[in-house]
Description:
The structure is a homodimer. By secondary structure, chain A is α+β, with helices and mostly antiparallel strands. The first copy, chain A, is built from nine helices and eleven strands. Chain A is globular. Chains A and B meet through strand 3, helix 7, strand 11, helix 8 and helix 9 of A and strand 3, helix 7, strand 11, helix 8 and helix 9 of B.
Amino acid sequence: MAREIVECVPNFSEGRRKEVVDAIADAIRSVPGTKLLDVEMDANHNRAVVTFIGDRNAVAEAAFRGAEKAVAVIDLTVHKGEHPRIGALDVCPFVPVSGVTMEDCVAIARTVGERIARELKVPVYLYEEAATRPDRRALPDIRKGEFEGLREEIKTNPERAPDFGPRQLHPTAGASVVGARAPLIAFNVNLGTPDVQIAKKIAHAIRESSGGLKYVRAKGFALKDRGIVQVSINMVNYKGTPLFRAYELIKAEAERYGVPIVGSEIVGLVPLEAVVDSAGFYLKLENFKVEQILETRLWE
Amino acid sequence: MAREIVECVPNFSEGRRKEVVDAIADAIRSVPGTKLLDVEMDANHNRAVVTFIGDRNAVAEAAFRGAEKAVAVIDLTVHKGEHPRIGALDVCPFVPVSGVTMEDCVAIARTVGERIARELKVPVYLYEEAATRPDRRALPDIRKGEFEGLREEIKTNPERAPDFGPRQLHPTAGASVVGARAPLIAFNVNLGTPDVQIAKKIAHAIRESSGGLKYVRAKGFALKDRGIVQVSINMVNYKGTPLFRAYELIKAEAERYGVPIVGSEIVGLVPLEAVVDSAGFYLKLENFKVEQILETRLWE
């Protein structure tokens, strides 16, 4: 029987102070049965992405401890960054990897979400597969107005009432979005221009919500320290819309503005198949099977 | 201490009769401690590539049993195919994967080579890291003239005397080349033209021996059943010259002839890093680490 592995990828609203992110990561890894896989910090976004795995109970406990530490050390009233956010723990997805189903991960999300709301007094919205309403599946919909906007709306607009917890943001930690989803790829494409409007236009062109590629969420950001701009993408179904397709569409759109792609990055972890599919696309590989990669056969 | 894994990739001169190749594969996998990873048959080349792993002793025994079966069932006097060959077992490399050194693999090659020559009466040439002479490192140099040419030369030309065994080819099994080497990638690139001269010219342009890319061996073949042609490449050091560089050079050369690349294939196994490097090149990935691939972290 396959080993039980749940992946959890909490995003925290701190990308500049390493000691803060380390404290959160330490809280997570303090739980036996978890393995911390990755910690990424982005100073422009002012955001950190932590990736860890474990059995369902260890992962649920570790997610809570990460939330608890984040609430203690992150103050959104003084937080500024390129990436939209509503909480110190901004989003916390659970992803089935092996030996667990999506339903299992939805159950974990509900348990952890309820505990965060009750013990930390942070309102929680359930999203993606754990969503209680269709207009609450997608993270951008829940995050509208960000921390500052939601602070008012949550009290007045019935549509913005949380799934757990008070109808009031935590004063410094805001609200958290918790859920279950398939593996997502965080993929940033950097453009050789200082004009952030170009990145915003391209993001608008390629994202599903405004008419572009299905399964693509995208935003344009300025990378001020580098003098360039970035189309920051979440690929929510890399089997439906693969990495290379989004890349090629960005390339075509960027050409319209006479702007080159100068680099890209994958933030956090990525499924092997997604990388292989991209190599296969550009090399025009026929009949290539992931099992032809030697290392996959050593793990058997 | 790392598990001891040697990879062996024998190539046999049979790519059309599945029952023949199956019999050879069965002989190999009959040895406890081996794992058969892949069997590829190419009807145009009339050649099969088998990939298996195991500890050094199991792999040495299995390689011999594969040779023994090949000598029994393959008759080179009636063999026709696109790929150059001198033996029923044409080449048998041993590759260090973990827990063994290149020197260990050279020792295995010598032991197996000597046994093939003595027990099967098939002359053996040692190549690559096991070579006894600098002009015998490269397979193309040892294979000059193929079975038919070598059959005469081996008797008359002292330069063509084998490292083990008689100065006479086995009447139906020819000679075998045995050695140790780093991982090699067998990569075929198919061109949308029936003109095999174009494939030959491009192979000539890109291969190291005639002035092209270091670490690249290449030949042009006709794929008669498909009406197209192929540049068939061995990348002998994918860290030195990566897949995508050879691909891009072929693409540039093919454009000169107005011919498109219509597909490619990797034959047998490929190291993960080689696939990742190609995806990284085309997606312009910065700072990407293989450890970001989730599956690599599940087997730690």
